[in-house]
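Appendix B. Raw example, untouched.
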Amino acid sequence: MTTFTELLNYLAYLLPAVIAGFIGVYFFKTYVEHQKEMQYLTLRKENRSEVLPLRLQAFERLVLFLERISPGQLLSRVKPIGDNKYDYENLLIASIEQEFEHNLVQQVYVSQKCWDAIKASKNSTISMIRRTNMSDKITTAQKLREEILTDLLEKQSPSDTGIAFIKTEIKQLF
């Protein structure tokens, strides 16, 4: 029985040491995880402070893009060269496409939904120009301009919808 008693004594001394060891390992593991999380948050905060200005600049450029392709702005900036309505339609669409290509890289800084809204605004503007030009009462480039501007008085520009989406996206940043 003495060996059994000695074994119990050893276990009585060993058990608290094992428990203390497990507690120590648990706290050390928790501490290391907490430190990793703090480093991650610090790194993320630093990245955010560097990326946020780039994202805001991208939003600014995209709003400028949508303003430039807004039919009212576009028609005042791009004058018809001749009297042919199809040439003027192509000139307007080429101007929109050129503006779009110039801002393609901005999609890196915005969400996919936002980029899709911008493309939809661009495509709606092009569609509006084409649809207006198909009318039988449009015979000249000047008539095309007048009809598009008249349509804008009655309904909202596709660019306004895209700009509203961008504003919503910016509010989510803050």
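End of appendix B.
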